[in-house]
Amino acid sequence: MDIAKKGDWVRIYNIVLTSEERAPQVPDDTKKVSLEMWDKGFLLNDEAKIGDEVEVETYIGRKIKGKMVEINPQYKHNYGEYVPELSYIGRQLRSILEGGESNE
Length: 104
Hints:
The protein is α+β, with helices and mostly antiparallel strands.
């Protein structure tokens, strides 16, 4: 689905401040990059395609503009890469604790 209709839940992207517009007191590495924003809301335009400039109303009622990047955005987070040490550390700790003073 590449076309959203009015009222669809979408994610937008916008550059709030370019690197040249950043405050002088921010750290040097922060000054080098633009301040970016991603937000979600209900599409206020009648229809829009991915990449179009749109206006949305957020869940709390703010109206903001940006480039539409996703329709019906999903949560895509995880707990990172597999860490082999964590597979046995729980068993090892439990055996140490269950042994009490005999394991000291």
